Amino acid sequence: MMTTIVEKERTTESPVRVKEHAKSVYSTNQLNLWYGSNHALKNIDLDIKEHEVTAIIGPSGCGKSTYIKTLNRMVELVPSVKTSGEILYRDRNIFDSNYSVEELRTRVGMVFQKPNPFPKSIYDNVAYGPRIHGIRNKKILNEIVEKSLRGAAIWDEVKDRLHENAYGVSGGQQQRICIARALAIEPDVILMDEPTSALDPISTLKIEELVQELKKDYSIIIVTHNMQQAARISDKTAFFLNGEVVEFDHTDTIFSNPSDKRTEDYISGRFG
Amino acid sequence: MRPSVQEMIAQSNGKKSKKVIEKIIPVVLFLIASVSVLTTVGIVITLILETITFFTRVPVADFLFGTTWLPFSNKEELYGIWPLILGTLKVTAIAVVVAVPIGISAAIYLSEYASEPVRRTIKPVLEILAGVPTIVYGFFALTFVTPVLQSFFPDVKIFNAISPGIVVGIMIVPMIASLSEDAMTSVPRQIREGALAMGSTKLEVAMKITLPAAFSGIIASVVLAISRAIGETMIVSLAGGSTPRFDGNFTDSIQTMTAYIVQVSKGDAGYGTTIYYSIYAVGFTLFLFTMIMNILAGYLSKRFREEY
Predict the structure, then answer these.
(1) pTM for this structure?
(2) Assembly ipTM
(3) Which residues span the membrane (chain B) (predicted)?
């Protein structure tokens, strides 16, 4: 289905901003971010559509991780962070003083660079989110845990060891448990911050397939340092460089016919 | 021309002194390390030998099962250890009730909530608290805490179990707080972030993620603190009194194992008397208690370890 839309758009639209009929999940307008005096994100404008996989690529230190962490305000854990501009999530500015971060993060799940399961059983890991948000019924919890683990394509591998410590499985399995943990609260968006950078190629492949599967139900934003990965799994790609968005377009266009020389240089491996 | 660097290295390595030093230093280090081990062994052996002498005069069963401790009697001397153990347990129980909630709360605050400047101020203060001589705590208990207690509860006597219990509790708070804080801060940041990213509040992260993950370290800190409370001497000698009693009374004068040893050591008994040997038996009992607590700390911290 996605390919047909892409085909149609490519012939008509301007390269940087693509007009579409799909709803936006995130609209970033003139976002600036500083770590102390270090200007890490500069005038970012990005419009992210629902039910798409949006990849963010760029060399180390270009601000791609910072940007994705801004989307659920995890970046504020760094004490010296300052921001300006706005990020609209479903038409509400997440920087509004009355916007609760807990509410935002309940709607927007995150998967981290290194698998970070809680030091608890696999079951308790997945049930953690529903539990803290007030779901106590055992039957419902069992159902959620199974559904989430199936959703993360790990159910068959762990169904007989649900009550063992999550650190007892391999790194790739841990990462899929973390994805299941995020799915358990049925979020709207899933942010993935280089989710495969600590994994072996086979686990990486499994996660990539999973992303394809998940985009039916979720909007996914994925940061990756691996350009082939972006090309394989994403619908749109944003290229970040030195804290700016150089180019944002359909992934096919970015990789086959980039409009900016710097994008082309990066993609063809001339730097980064 | 100077010789090449490799030649100079070869020359230096060929020196006899270097080889000799390499051989001797480990031996010297071993001998020095042995001193501490040998001292401990020596103390334990002395303790055991003198305890055996004591048991040649007082039957083991009387000591283990007797409920009256009356060594200074003119008629029949009684050496049932239980009143002393009970005195120690009373003080320790109160200390734990005081110290565990305060210590763990302080640890949660420091590791989860306190800003860096606050943490940097409070931690040294806690460590100063840990460095206060126990004799100071002792007269604090006797001259401040006891009168305050008496103003609220007129039943409380000058010497009692509650006042030294509270003050021993205060004394072990820094130990529990500091060790628990270490255990909690060593929970990896990524695990916390994982919980925050699920929409957890700070309190939920602290109670449901950090605390369980650090539980083994916290248990170990509590058990070590208990063992410290059991062995505490000055506070209970000053404020607890010297009346060994076998009952559940907390407001009257008591005597702990340590306080008894102090009392005898101060010179009430001559060398070679049964009373003299009794302090070794009591000391050995005390040693068993603290040793069991330390072993327990190791066991529990393994048992409750959440792997990460």
Answers:
(1) 0.81
(2) 0.86
(3) 24-49, 79-104, 125-146, 158-179, 209-230, 275-300
